[in-house]
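Pipeline run #58 for the internal structure catalog. This entry was flagged by the ingest filter as a single-chain record with no existing model, so it goes straight to prediction. Upstream metadata was stripped on purpose; only the residue string is passed forward. Reviewer on rotation: M.T. Logging verbosity set to normal.
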Amino acid sequence: MENNQQENARKINRIPIVAVLLSGAFLAILNQTLLATAIPPIMVDFHLTESTAQWLTTIFMLVNGIMIPVSAFLIETFTARKLLLTAMSVFAIGTLICGIAPSFLILMVGRVIQASGAGIMLPLMMTIFLLIFPIEKRGSAMGIVGLVISFAPAIGPTLAGWVVEHLPWRAMFFIILPLAVIDIIFAYFIMKNVTEQTNPKVDILSILLSTFGFGGLLYGFSSAGNYGWSSSVVIGSLCIGTIALTAFILRQFKLVQPILEFRVFRYKTFTITTAIGMIAFMGLIGAETILPIYMQNMAGFSALESGMMIMPGAMLMGIMSPITGRIFDRVGARWLVIIGLSIMTITTFLFTNLSTETSLTYLTVVFAVRMLGISMVMMPATTAGLNQLPVRLIAHGTAMNNTMRQIAASIGTAILVTVMTAAAIDSSPDADPSQMIPGVNMAFLVATGLSLCALVLAFFIKRSTPAEDRAAAELAERDNQ
């Protein structure tokens, strides 16, 4: 059945489907960091602190993380065409609400609705790509996906920087909205059904437990910047999150059709590469949240300059993703990931000595080289892990990989912003920049330590090519049968 499903999927004309999926995913992922550069003016408009304002970024990633586990259920329940149209329509409605939001609360509601649609897009795209491309071409195909995953969050701050420099920050959403509508129209005529519906039963308790688990952890880490680590709010949130998440994981092992299939972690390479991807994405999103705050609020740069600082790295990452995909198809992931993480670790450490005198050139060059390293990590690691899974677990592996990455990015960003606030000599609105910058340096020092941990893990990725991965996956499938 699975082989017939794959064969039928690969007979479909891939180009229009790929174009529609990439466009939708680009818009969805773009919105993760679209507000990063715009946070300072939004803070002024709504009278917010850094710890409160960063929720505009982290709530988007959190809801993404909550929706992604549900995506495996949705992909097996609804046709690909219906699911794509629904996800993009929900995303467009959320975008409209953000554009007209009269208050911070309504803006947050819009971000939640946006993320509800966006959270389905990426796992749907990756699942379809893994079905319509044979394993020996997945590296190149996922390299294209990597271009979207890497380029979109990188270009977001640049676009936002230009917009807030020349227009009200709300204009960002009215630029995105018509693009989303156009993609919906094209998807209506182009999208084909390539997934198989198995109609699994949804477990409401699992969804509630995952929401309280991930949400409790994120709220606890995020609130530490405002309330302090000893606050009952922080401790209570972390305890609730930990208990709920533990209950959620234990429940998944008891279900015949789990919301999130934790058994994929039985495959060692998948586990290692997922952990590496979590740290890499945390480093990407964390830096894109902290650097604009540092540049605009502490170093005297404009919003446009903080956005333009990211542009060369975005271009380099976009160019490199398909190239690393082709290299992956030939040599596998191990040395790509090791070299990429080495670059990422060194360049992250170079951000630990920032000051009010740090030049725009220094920031731009270091960030660009850092993005080069991340481009060598993200999709090669993800693809190497998914290649180890049998076909029946690919949708669950994709959902798990994306969930862990989004949760890591949202909680990781919250932790880094909290560290930045807590380590500052003075983080009050009237503080001198020289007293706030030590917090930024400490946040990047923590990020350096995490990157170093990922580098150590990379040496445990086995040496293999995609052809060998296919043989291993087929053998694993026969063993399970």
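catalog note: The radius of gyration is 21 Å.
catalog note: Residues 270 and 385 are 4 Å apart (CA to CA).
status: ready for reviewer M.T.
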